[in-house]
Automatic annotation (TrEMBL):
This is Methyltransferase DDB_G0268948. It comes from the Eukaryota. PANTHER family: METHYLTRANSF_11 DOMAIN-CONTAINING PROTEIN, METHYLTRANSFERASE TYPE 11 DOMAIN-CONTAINING PROTEIN. Keywords: Methyltransferase, Transferase. The keyword Translocase does not apply. GO terms for molecular function: S-adenosylmethionine-dependent methyltransferase activity. Belongs to the methyltransferase superfamily. One of its GO terms (biological process) is methylation. Residues 46-137 form the Methyltransferase type domain. The keyword Nucleotide-binding does not apply. InterPro entries: Diverse_substrate_MTase (IPR051052), Methyltransf_11 (IPR013216), SAM-dependent_MTases_sf (IPR029063). Gene3D superfamilies: Vaccinia Virus protein VP39 (3.40.50.150). The lineage of its organism: Eukaryota, Metazoa, Chordata, Craniata, Vertebrata.
Length: 271
């Protein structure tokens, strides 16, 4: 089962360490959409497939109560261990059976997670728990990113793409929904008030070591690791070594700039 990909404790700690909160641009987009539909204060938001809670924590200040849910016990255990505001709680729950009352939720989010759900059942469940005029925001990014450092962007991006492509055989069907920027998910949403924002390029900086860590957290890398641990580790070592050679540096703490393409599906339940 695809969700078993996220069951490992070690995988959950990689999430906690390397996964990033949604960019400010995406957070602003979601909040301004919600504000256009509903008046503050917002009582409850639910972050489904919350993993270790990066997105949950980022959006929590705007809600009286924020609940992160995930099917993986290991991810929820990690989320609970991170320092969290008092309005945040977490629980283990499948996206297709959410533990909330009918018409009780202002916002349902899913960050880099909706493509793992049974989308038909999830959308029905979202419709049940959303208040009238409540919103959903399903967002994600393309994991094949550009890597920039001085004038080496094209070489570094080519190395990253090569590494990413060599993991392609371990991609699950679910991840393929991401390549089309959630088009199928957008089309499945039964509401007329909906929109899909694509190609939002977010630029951020991180050490080469963390970029390698991010790749380690990819589900397809974890599959590779299970099938052939030696080859998987070698791929990362080689990729890091090639980066450093092209950059002309020796430290994997050297900062590179990553350009990642984000996209977001927004929808509002009718009154
Ligand atoms: C790629 S991770 C994203 C985690 C987090 N939202 C983030 O942005 O880092 C996908 C998460 O979805 C969860 N997941 C997958 N299928 C699920 C389902 N049917 N119900 C609830 N959570 C699910 C996984 O356990 C995993 O934590």
């Amino acid at each position: 089962m695809t969700t078993q990909l996220f069951e490992g404790k070690e995988h959950a700690s990689l999430y906690q360490k390397y996964r990033l909160p949604p960019p400010d641009e995406v957070q602003k987009l979601i909040l301004s959409y919600l504000e256009a539909k509903k008046q503050r204060p917002f009582s409850l938001a639910v972050d489904v497939g919350c993993g270790t809670g990066q997105s949950t924590r980022a959006l929590a200040p705007h809600f009286e109560k924020m609940v992160g849910t995930d099917i993986s016990k290991a991810q929820i255990e990690e989320a609970k261990q991170s320092s969290s505001a008092s309005n945040i709680s977490y629980c283990v729950s499948p996206a297709e059976e959410l533990p909330f009352e009918d018409s009780s939720v202002d916002l349902v989010t899913a960050a880099a997670a909706a493509h793992w759900f049974n989308i038909e059942k999830f959308l029905k469940e979202v419709d049940r728990i959303l208040k009238p005029s409540g919103c959903m925001a399903l967002y994600c990014y393309q994991a094949c990113m550009e890597v920039h450092y001085k004038d080496c962007a094209s070489k570094l991006t080519a190395i990253f793409t090569e590494c990413y492509n060599s993991l392609a055989i371990y991609t699950s069907k679910n991840t393929e929904i991401v390549y089309s920027e959630y088009e199928a998910i957008f089309n499945a949403i039964p509401y007329t008030d909906k929109k899909r924002i694509t190609q939002m390029v977010h630029k951020f900086q991180m050490p080469v070591a963390d970029l390698i860590g991010l790749v380690k957290s990819f589900s397809m890398f974890q599959t590779f690791l299970q099938i052939d641990p030696e080859a998987a580790k070698k791929l990362l070592q080689k990729t890091e070594q090639r980066f450093l050679e092209v950059m002309g540096v020796t430290s994997n703490e050297t900062i590179v700039e990553i350009w990642a393409k984000h996209f977001c599906v927004l929808a509002c339940k009718p009154l």
